[in-house]
Amino acid sequence: MHTFTVNGKAVQLDVEDDMPLLWALRDELGMTGTKFGCGIAACGACTVHIDGVATRSCVMPVVAVAGRSVQTIESKDDPILQRLQAAWVAHQVPQCGYCQSGMLMAATDLLRRNPKPSDADIDDAMTNICRCGTYQRVRAAIHEAAGQGSTQGGRA
Predict the structure, then answer these.
(1) CB atoms within 10 A of CB 142
(2) What pLDDT was estimated at residue 153?
(3) What's the N-to-C CA distance of the chain in angstroms?
(4) Which tens digits make up the pLDDT trace of 57-72?
(5) Cβ-contact 44, 102 below 8 angstroms
(6) Residue 122's closest CA among 132, 131, 133, 137?
């Protein structure tokens, strides 16, 4: 039995120790906002926060989150995430949208650590892959959510 917290709620799962957290969230808890992309922690579609740190959940075994706090895109109580979501809409960031939950979780971690990031800071922190190539819009949305205006980083 594995006990941990997801978006502020305690959960208990009776699953194999090596089950990736991604599958525990999606298949066992029905939280499908976190996406499967590559399965090797390269693309970032599966990004969640574990104890406040952006983490790729596809390679994180559920046993490693025992007693820890997990935040997913479904979280409703994160003001940084809410600001980013509004900026994402304002800048029309998503095209296909598949990578967006992971992108938003990575951006939330960035703004929590660095509330006023430069373009270089954003480029260094945002290692998620977007097949649609909306990186300029991502950068502009992050600047807007940081209160740095909507013109930095440009719009694609």
Answers:
(1) 31
(2) 43
(3) 47
(4) 999 999 999 999 999 9
(5) yes
(6) 137
Architecture in CATH for domain 2-71: Roll (3.10)
Q: How many CB atoms lie within 10 A of CB 41?
A: 16
CA-based diameter of the chain, in Å? 49
Among 57, 54, 73, which residue's Cα sits nearest to residue 65?
57
Residue ranges, CATH 3.10.20.30, the chain = 2-71
Residue 150: predicted pLDDT: 53
Report whether CATH 3.10.20.30 matches the domain 79-145: no
Q: What is the pTM of this model?
A: 0.92
User: Can you list the residues of the chain whose pLDDT is less than 70?
Assistant: 150-156
In the chain, list all ranges with CATH 1.10.150.120: 79-145
Place of tokens 């967006």: 100
What's the one-letter identity of residue 75?
Answer: S
Q: What is the pLDDT of residue 155?
A: 40
